[in-house]
UniProtKB/TrEMBL annotation:
This is Thioredoxin-disulfide reductase. SUPFAM superfamilies: FAD/NAD(P)-binding domain (SSF51905). It comes from Adhaeribacter pallidiroseus. GO terms for molecular function: thioredoxin-disulfide reductase (NADPH) activity. Keywords: Flavoprotein, Oxidoreductase. Its EC number is 1.8.1.9. The keyword Transferase does not apply.
Length: 325
């Protein structure tokens, strides 16, 4: 049976996957971007009122200007920008189509998805890490009141909220829910707040100092029950009445998918995938990595701003190996 043949198949329609599509199109290759969710699926899952740390120009792809009315663009502006890029450039993209298998024979890859089968000479894996939350591994974690994703603060009006974490996401959740009428308690493993946007950190520090937001430092959650939680603090174990637990503990790449695709991962806890930093080619010939997936568990290394260049590196390498006519 003959399957559609593509020069470059790109897995993931986040900003870096789109950037790879732009570069492939510019170079004259046939290409297809396949995405298991919606366009820029990870950004779509971001909190409703999220503001990026970066300026708009740092989020641009393909040299296409990102106009923002604010110094720091927000989630709706980013979604609008990436939709506009996709439409204006006529990117070849299939949404809500999940890649399930990647097999190679005679230098050609056969890619099985939930909807079709394709053949491609080159494959770019540009998936993010927002689908697999870092779990707490404590009793009660699977109760519906425990959530690893946060969207809108209104839902938590007049609720007793536990926020776990010390970085940007936890800070935003704590401040937004507090200002929408929640009773907020933060549980922080470290002795102080972590990496937080410079305009947010003083605000949170002041709320903690005045007691509007309660914070337990050098503490961790022990167990969750329907109406309360147990917390280990430096002064001993305490029980806190509680309605919802928002675990802003971060996320990790889909390592099972990389392993399924035959990508070698480092044996340590960092689980760094193997790739050449100049070409982004993995241990599998003509299979490349792009974007945040390259960092393994070091999810703070690669962002849109500094991984846009991966798209250029990959396509330039492909051009050296397989020039277009």
């Amino acid at each position: 049976m003959e399957y559609p043949f593509i020069d470059v198949l790109i897995i993931g329609a986040g900003p870096i996957g789109l950037a790879c599509g732009l570069e492939a199109k510019k170079a004259g290759y046939s290409y297809l971007i396949v995405e298991k969710g919606c366009l820029v699926n990870s950004l779509y899952k971001y909190p409703l009122n999220m503001t990026f740390f970066s300026t708009a120009d740092r989020l641009e792809i393909g040299g296409i200007p990102f106009a923002s009315i604010q110094a720091k663009p927000n989630r709706p502006e980013a979604l609008e920008y990436y939709r506009r890029v996709t439409d204006s450039q006529g990117l070849n993209i299939n949404l809500f189509e999940e890649v399930t298998a990647l097999e190679e024979a005679a230098g050609i890859y056969q890619i099985q998805t939930s909807k079709n089968t394709y053949q491609a000479k080159h494959v770019i894996i540009a998936i993010g890490f927002y689908d697999v939350p870092n779990l707490l591994n404590i009793p009660g974690e699977y109760l519906s009141k425990v959530r690893h994703y946060y969207f809108d603060p209104h839902f938590y009006y007049k609720q007793k909220i536990i926020v776990i974490g010390a970085n940007n996401s936890a800070a935003d959740v704590a401040l937004e829910t507090y200002r929408k009428g929640a009773e907020v308690t933060m549980i922080i493993r470290e002795a102080e707040l972590g990496r937080i946007k410079y305009w947010t950190k003083p605000d949170l520090e002041n709320r903690i100092q005045e007691g509007s937001v309660k914070a337990y430092f050098q503490s961790h959650l022990l167990a969750v029950r329907e109406n309360e939680v147990d917390v280990q603090t430096p002064d001993g174990q305490i029980t806190i009445p509680n309605d919802y637990v928002l675990a802003m503990t971060g996320y990790q790449p889909q390592f099972h998918l990389l392993e399924k695709f035959g990508i070698t991962l480092s044996p340590d806890l960092k689980r760094h995938p193997q790739y050449h930093p100049e070409t982004m080619e993995t241990n599998r010939k003509n299979v490349f990595l792009a974007g945040v997936i390259c960092g393994g568990m070091d999810t703070h290394i690669w962002f849109i701003e500094n991984s846009r260049e991966h798209a250029v590196k990959i396509i330039q390498h492909i051009q050296k190996q397989t020039p277009t006519v």
